[in-house]
Here is the input.
Amino acid sequence: MVSQYGIKYAVHIITNHFGPLVAKVCDCLLKKGPLPLREIVRYTELSETLVRNCLLVLIQHNCLQPFLLEEEDLIETLLQHGRLSSEQIFDGFRDSTEGNSSGGMEALQENMHKLVMARYVERCPISEPFLALPSEEEAAPVRRRGAKSAKAFLELETLEQRVLVAAVPPEGMRFSFELNPEIGADRDKVENNSFSNIGDKRKLDALESDIDGGVPDKQVALWRVNFEEFIRRLRHKICIETVRTRLDDEAATVFTAMLDASRSEEKKIKTASSVPLSENSIYAEVIKSEKGRNMTLDYVISVLVGLSSSPPFVRVVDNSYSIDFKHTIEVAQTDEVESIVYKKYGKDAYRMFRLLSKAGRLLETDKISDSIFLEKKETANILSKMWQGDYLQMEKLIAGPTQFLLWKVNMINLRERVLDDMFHAALNLSLRVAYELEQQKEILHLGVDGPMKEKYEKLKKVRFLLESSRMKLDDAIMIFHDF
Here is the structure.
């Protein structure tokens, strides 16, 4: 590592030799580490052309070593442009490297192939899928609903669900990418001269083949990032951490092995359970990992018994084991809701909520008070607060002159409410981050030396805290995603 004054001295030398602009780029790289071009532009607040020129100066004088991370660049390129053909992707690679390296092109194709095989990248949906009218058998149950409800049902099924299903290419085509040594060959680029940058050209090329009812060239396959795969991986991560928290590291290791062994058969995100796995197939996957190599078959079986106990993360049928995704996610959701209740209403409210959540039925105030050893008046006050916040349901039971209050947790409705609250919080955080960024730009424009430096550093800390909070909130939202 270079010390603080070492960095300052290096920047001072660069300033004397090449001026303040090149020194600013150098200072950014010394403090932030390796960065792609657009990140340097963002941090330095300089134009992309100016940053490129500064980088070329540093490269010319052996102060900087550029390098390429093909896989990361591919994902970032697709995220930036949405959808691209293979030719557009490889043209962008040539433009970014300012040359046509056959070795680099082969490596890029190989990485593209790996990403497709791993399902991180997929072919785009069909632009205009053909939808057949529903058969008489499919329409019969709808007719019995009545004219108005049948129309609404048909519109929902046809225009939203059936279109999306029909647009997805067949599995063999969706994740099929053949290596082609001739791909990315030089093309006539005269048509590109009217565009300000290659990104605009690539975006337009992708759009022209997919809008206004135009049918794209059958030889051109458009590619995009497969968000479903990333969501699936994040879902797996949530399940693993839930098992680790509720049980232990050994259980998480076996659970991870089951995920890996059944991954190829998992076709949809909203899969209720994995395919059944035998004890031997699970053990064979467990010993592939470093943490699992010390486990014996008998020990793995004992861990599986624990995984199938309360709460049951794994189902057992005829000595075969399958992951219960639905229940595992529900456990994670319940843990998150209980955490929110604890932070919002306190420890006693948390204990009441857990009692009602586990009971799954209506409980009277006295019963709750006796169970958690709290005075009835205080119990009633806390329950009332949670009811007013829509975290509990309340029913009144009148028996003669006496009125009883009954309380219950409706977890299905509560999950929807909590998710909406999370979206609201995420929106507020995003708006606040945008505001802080604008404040930083104003200070940067005035200069960060002197009295403005302290204010600038304070804004940086606030922004870091806000962005960290937003990332944690995004993780929590993912637990409730699409369930």
